[in-house]
Amino acid sequence: MQEHLIGNYSNLKGALFSEITVEKFIQEEIRHGRYDVVASTKNSLEKSSQGERKKALLNHLISQNPEYLVVDNVFGSLDTAAQIEIEETLTQLSCKIPIIQITNRKTDILPFIDDVYQLRDGKPVLLNSTETPKTLSQFKKFVETLPKAYRNDWETIAPLVKFNNVTIAYNDRPIVKDICWEIKPGDFWQLVGPNGSGKSTLLTLISGDNPKAFNQDITLFGVKKGTGESVWEIKKKIGYFSSEMLRGITRLDSVGNMIASGFFDTIGLYRVPSNEQIKIVQHWLRVFGMYKIRKQSFLSLSRGYQRLVLIARAMVKHPPLLILDEPTNGLDDCDVAILSELINKIANETDTAILYVSHRKEDKLLTPDFIYELTPNNEGSTGSIVVAS
Ligand SMILES: Nc1ncnc2c1ncn2[C@@H]1O[C@H](COP(=O)(O)OP(=O)(O)OP(=O)(O)O)[C@@H](O)[C@H]1O
After folding, report:
1. Which residue has the least CA distance to atom 25 on ligand 1?
2. Which CATH topology does 3-127 take?
3. For the CA of 197, the nearest atom of ligand 1
4. pTM exceeds cut of 0.90
5. Closest protein CA for atom 30 of ligand 1
6. Contact (CB, 8 A) for 97 and 67
7. Using CA atoms, how far apart are residues 25 and 22, in angstroms rounded to an integer?
8. Known PANTHER family for this protein (predicted)?
9. Could you tell me the fold of the domain covering 161-387?
10. Ligand 1 atom having least distance to the Cα of 77
11. How far is CA 166 from CA 71, 103, 212, 297, in A?
């Protein structure tokens, strides 16, 4: 960044509040057993929820008395209460030290920010007070319909998910209590609840990644948990996208190959797709208007388009259940609108059930059939069903 933009801070002690920093501390825990940042639950960062991690990181950084702070995607993964709390903390801190905010959503600009710069053609341009930041891409409606079902042998599986009085605790600390919830084919569900209420815990019970599922009355894709089904069989029936996936992708796959890899449940293509599979990939590329750039590197795409491609990757096998975990975290307003449009389109045009988890206000752009809400209390979060308006 240019010196005139933020001043010369090279001799000052700075700190970075970002998901990258969270990840670095988690790596220190895993590799070197160093637990410098502890959440309010006394859990390590690795065992904490997304929101708990961010709150713990900010407290830690402030305790180190930085002389300036850079904050990146401040509100990502935070529930409304935590957003207000962190905004207040940063507002107070801004009276003592300079704060530089990086954001791609104008609604996230903190109230104490004096000057707003926008990167245009790689150069920071100062916006005057009446100008609002331009979004980077123009929102276009998807015109073409989505590909038809690739296979029909999954059509009769029901219920997709059934929890009967599911209760989970970690080290005697109750997390969720007496959860009764059923997801039927074609349903569009939104899962909501404050940070730490157990949303990810429920997702891991569904995706087969949580060993605690075995003592519980859980039915997945018509099969009772613990009666011999393999995690691999479960994963084959789930299309999954989380904004966290993007951080782990370093392979140089083309856009087309990235979508095709969804047929084989890999991220990146290691096998040769059939002609039928190639046709389905080409269909998805046309839906996105990306056919011409199908051979371009996936990593060269903008963040918003990378997510469209990864959702197509999750959908090509036409799974009975699509899980979208915080899919819009870190996106600008325009990309959020495009992504929401795609998710509504999948709900309207396919028989795949959708389970969508997010805290953000853009949820208003979505049209779920039902909302499952987790409400924390001392004995573990309880769940209730809200019929969406
Ligand atoms: N392996 C674990 N060991 C101990 N505690 C855990 C473990 N995994 C999760 N927890 C705790 O369980 C609680 C629920 O976590 P979970 O990640 O399910 O919440 P969440 O609703 O997804 O939160 P967020 O919105 O902040 O991501 C948190 O308090 C977390 O610290």
Report:
1. 195
2. Rossmann fold (3.40.50)
3. 21
4. no
5. 48
6. yes
7. 5
8. ABC TRANSPORTER ATP-BINDING PROTEIN MODF, HEAVY METAL TRANSPORTER
9. Rossmann fold (3.40.50)
10. 25
11. 38, 39, 10, 43
Determine whether the shortest distance from the Cβ of 104 to ligand 1 is under 6 A: no
206 Cα: distance to centroid of ligand 1 (angstroms): 15
Q: What is the 77 CA–ligand 1 centroid distance (Å)?
A: 13
Return the domain boundaries, the chain.
Answer: 3-127, 161-387
Order of all β-strands in the sheet with 370-375: 238-242, 321-325, 353-357, 188-192, 370-375, 382-387
ipTM summary value: 0.98
**Fold match between domain 3-127 and domain 161-387:** yes
From 85, 190, 201, 356, mutation site for ligand 1 pocket: most ligand atoms within 8 A of C-beta:
201
Whole-number Å distance, alpha carbon 31 to ligand 1 midpoint, is 21
**Does residue 199 line the site of ligand 1, with CB under 6 A?**
yes
Exposed/middle/buried for 378, CB within 10 Å: 0-12, 13-18, 19+?
A: exposed
